[in-house]
Amino acid sequence: MKIVTWNVNGIRARAAQLCEFLERDRPDVVCLQELKAEAAQIPEPCKLADYHVYWHCLKAYSGVSLHIRKELTPVDPVFSHPPFDVESRMVQLEHGNLVIASVYVPNGGKDYPAKLQFLTRLAEWARQLCADRRDVVLCGDLNVARTEMDVHPKERKPNAVGQRPEERALFETLLGQHLVDLGRAFDPDNPHLFTWWAPWRNLRARNIGWRLDYILVSEAVAARAESCIVLKDVGTSDHAPVAMTMA
What we know:
Layout: E1 2-7, H1 15-25, E2 29-33, E3 51-56, E4 64-69, E5 79-80, E6 90-95, E7 98-104, H2 112-131, E8 135-141, H3 165-175, E9 179-181, H4 182-186, H5 203-206, E10 213-218, H6 219-224, E11 225-230, E12 242-246
Parallel strand pairs: 1-2, 7-8
Antiparallel strand pairs: 1-12, 2-4, 3-4, 5-6, 6-7, 8-10, 9-10, 11-12
Helix pairs in contact: 2-3
């Protein structure tokens, strides 16, 4: 199974790139964030017939989607949202014992307490699933650089939102619910592993970025994982997709 997460930073701007990518790589599950479009504004080419999909949208802001290939589930899957979901920031589905979620954590620049609250509730969500012995794949833009290594030295700034101690502590609380940061598990010592680059000064080409996009999985899923990589050359969003494969 191949699972991909991508903050597209506007589905209308990235429609052709998304279709090209899906046709070429044929992922089984796709999690998108920051759609910035109402459901009626989703480009028709993005509504691929071989995927079940739920578009969870707001006008010109936020928005997530979750896509699963129809050959994996012959009946329509049940998509849902946890109670703490606001501003169309999270959608999940159940596939047997596996729960897959696409999440877009608030940036926190305008309402930092709301970001901390969201992260707190996200950790509670993961704790309950673990208590229920569910397998979990949590994909998305978590808007936290987990450690100093996850920010290029030129981008490290004291008290910058996304790098603050309390955000990182909440990230570790989330991982403490028996979740594994799959990207770092496969590439533990790489100081150049980034997924987001500010869209100026050619920072992406120079790889001066932050790691904000993650695939977090329960330990049983991690044991089946075969790879987790950043697809740095895909698309023109300020975020790159992250893709995992598992047996």
